[in-house]
Specification:
Blueprint (H helix, E strand, L loop, with lengths): L1 E5 L3 H11 L6 E6 L3 H10 L4 E2 L2 H7 L2 E4 L2 H13 L3 E5 L6 H14 L3 E4 L6 H13 L2 E9 L13 H11 L1 H12 L2 E9 L5 E7 L4 E7 L8 E8 L2 E4 L7 H18 L7 H20 L3
Parallel strand pairs: 1-2, 1-4, 2-3, 4-5, 5-6, 7-10
Antiparallel strand pairs: 7-11, 8-9, 9-10, 11-12
């Protein structure tokens, strides 16, 4: 099957294009971007055509991968309505309403969808999530997702949507993608407050009876950056493995998962419905932070 890439920014260059190029299931068919020169440069680098018209690329493929979160929801709806499968990134959408439009379009078209929560496509980490979900009996969890995007000279430090939405929406989805399958859905956001810079602190009440605390930041000192999830419960204490072979390999697995879902018709655990639930939790927390309530 043929897949097209919508987007030409740093993440499209660093992860999407390399993951799709030479994939053993997908035929990387072309690139479209809001800047034609950037689309041509990226397409030429991978030996595929550049498209000036996004609808022309959508018409030529079986699926699309979308890189820029700021315009993802609109493009995803257009592609789904055209009958194209979707490989999306987190967050699904910047608002609950936009996310719901994506979910509705996917359901109405009957297309497959996979949303790339990086950790969930790293085999060792995904196996750990599955094992802990089966074990149950968890009392509490602590998640820390600390990045130095805004305190170091990197490709994402001037990302407009990250500047606007901050760590809550950028790394918050990663933490939730691990916690929800283990502890159950979130009954309520018990507390949400702003810390230094864009740091956000959350306390969540889960349906399984456990609580979790999240510390999310893109302004952590470089020496303090890193991610961890620790669980405490009836079986003791366990932490998510620190094991990753990189975003490109993980994204290639997400593309394979999309192919499998499209072939079998079975929804993937990280589909748009799951991603929409993550969006709803983020929006609830954001509203509490903006209102200054705890």
């Amino acid at each position: 099957m043929r897949i097209g890439l919508l987007g030409t920014g740093p993440w499209a260059q660093m992860a999407h294009a390399p993951a799709l190029s030479g994939h053993d299931t997908w035929d990387f068919a072309g690139v479209w971007g809001r800047r034609a020169d950037a689309a041509k440069e990226l397409a030429d680098r991978h030996g595929v055509p550049a498209y000036d018209d996004v609808d022309a690329l959508i018409a030529d493929v079986d699926a699309v991968a979308i890189a820029p979160p700021s315009v993802q929801a609109e493009l995803a709806v257009r592609a789904a309505r055209a009958g194209r499968h979707l490989l999306l990134d987190k967050p699904l959408a910047p608002t609950v309403e936009q996310g719901r439009a994506v979910v509705d379009a996917v359901r109405e078209a009957g297309v497959a969808s996979v949303v790339f929560f990086t950790t969930r496509f790293e085999p060792t980490c995904e196996a750990w999530v599955t094992e802990q979900a089966a074990a149950g009996g968890w009392f509490t969890a602590r998640a820390e997702w600390l990045g130095s995007v805004f305190t170091s000279d990197g490709p994402f430090m001037n990302s407009p949507w990250r500047r606007e939405k901050g760590a809550l929406w950028d790394v918050g989805p990663h933490a939730l993608s691990v916690l929800l399958p283990i502890l159950g859905d979130v009954r309520r956001v018990a507390a949400a407050v702003r810390g230094p810079g864009d740091t956000t602190l959350l306390v969540l009440d889960h349906e399984g009876g456990a609580s979790s605390t999240l510390t999310l930041s893109l302004t952590a000192p470089t020496a303090a950056a890193g991610a961890t999830v620790e669980l405490r419960g009836e079986t003791g204490v366990t932490s998510i493995p620190d094991d990753s072979d990189g975003a490109v390999s993980a994204l290639a697995r997400a593309a394979s998962a999309l192919s499998e879902s499209a072939r079998t018709g079975r929804p993937h655990p990280c589909d748009v419905t799951f991603a929409q639930r993550v969006t709803e939790i983020l929006a609830e927390a954001e509203a509490m932070v903006d209102a200054g309530t705890v």
